[in-house]
Design brief:
85% helix; 4 helices
Amino acid sequence: FLLTISNPATILSFGALFAGFGLMDETRRLSSAAIVGGVFSGSLAWWFFLSGAVSLARERLSENFTTKVIRGTSYLLILFGFVALGSAAYTLLK
């Protein structure tokens, strides 16, 4: 949760969202505290839901399935790495 809430992309997206709704002009402390508290509570609730869902799924899925998912995502990451290297090489040699 702390890693997610401190992610620069998350901070910038919430800043853009607040600016889009005109909340950047809000100067009252109570309103600002309510906004920050709402974001905090929503993020915390999302992580509780996500952790609970993973915990339930882990109990119901076999270890073989977990191994297949880990291998599949590993292969995807390797593939994306090769694509990124190929793209960089193409840009440099172009």
